[in-house]
Design goal:
There is one protein chain. The protein has eight helices and nine strands. It is of the alpha+beta class. The chain has one domain. A nine-stranded antiparallel β-sheet has the order 2-3-4-5-1-6-7-9-8. A hairpin with a 5-residue loop joins strand 8 and strand 9. It is globular, with a radius of gyration of 18 Å.
Length: 286
């Protein structure tokens, strides 16, 4: 059975695609079917199991698309959730798509999250995983996504927790009208960074293409930026978010305050990044 992890239980040997957030105006059924197609685009990672809850069952004769269509019918216009896994025993993922991302009633975003153990794939497989992730982001209309390792994520969470305890950062603002910091900052610089069309419009294509070691314009109009050629191991001597040298070109091009930092001075919504409403409007314009 697939192991579903709580944040504090994240294993340290997984390559993790996470925080694929979208406020696309595309109808839910179209988004879900687009993601189902993208999930099957890379045979090494195409799910062999999927269901709306545990246990995650093997696909039936109608395949992944049929399973997704059945859940669309069952959800009857409510929020769509699908858990999926395989062919790697520990490959697992979650897709959440909501019927209303107008943001007037709640700041919900569509999300997708997939993980696979690095030990199960070679160097070519790691590159293929990143390419597969970019296709999933395109399919969901993601405005920001990333690929990283869970040990990097665990270190990042520890850095933030320690900064909050030292009084250098404010705890999460649950009273924020939009609840989330997505209106205010980019969460961090990762191995692969996916910036949707709203960011491209805000910052300009030339500026984004000059960052990192490799940049690719996606069919969606988003830009995917590799900060390094391959995922880096955790450096225990790095004690603060900005200590990793690979982040420097992002800070220089886009501004240090654009990304999470150990500071009580959180930018206002829309000050340094597009707001969720901006991303939503950009998705409507196409």
């Amino acid at each position: 059975m697939t192991k579903w992890y709580l944040p504090h239980e994240l294993p340290t040997d997984e390559l993790k695609m996470a925080a694929g957030d979208s406020v696309s105006a595309t109808p839910v059924a179209d988004l879900v079917r687009s993601v189902a197609t993208a999930l099957q685009a890379e045979p090494r990672f195409a799910p062999t199991r999927a269901s709306h809850r545990e246990p995650v069952r093997k696909l039936g004769p109608n395949g992944l698309r049929g399973t997704f269509d059945a859940e669309l019918e069952r959800s009857a216009g409510r929020g769509f959730r699908m858990l999926f896994g395989g062919p790697h025993e520990d490959l697992h993922g979650t897709l959440d798509v909501f019927p209303d991302t107008m943001l007037d009633r709640a700041p919900r975003t569509h999300t997708i999250d997939v993980s696979v153990p690095i030990a199960d794939i070679d160097t070519d497989g790691i590159a293929a995983f990143a390419a597969w992730a970019m296709g999933l982001f395109d399919a969901l209309g993601v405005f920001h996504g990333f690929v990283t390792t869970t040990n990097m994520q665990a270190q990042r969470k520890a850095m933030i927790s320690e900064a909050v305890m030292r009084g250098e950062m404010a705890p999460p603002r649950w009273d924020d009208p939009l609840y989330t910091t997505l209106d205010r900052i980019v969460s961090d610089v990762y191995w692969v960074n996916y910036f949707g069309p709203g960011y491209v419009e805000r910052w300009g294509l030339d500026r984004l293409m000059a960052i990192g070691v490799r940049s690719v314009v996606r069919p969606s109009g988003a830009v995917a930026i590799w900060a390094t050629e391959m995922p880096l191991p955790v450096d225990a001597t790095c004690l603060r978010l900005a200590d990793y040298p690979f982040k420097a070109s992002f800070y220089e091009a886009l501004g240090r305050r654009t990304f999470t930092l150990e500071s009580l001075d959180l930018p206002e919504p829309g000050e340094v990044v597009p707001t969720l409403h901006d991303h939503r409007q950009r998705s409507i314009l196409g």
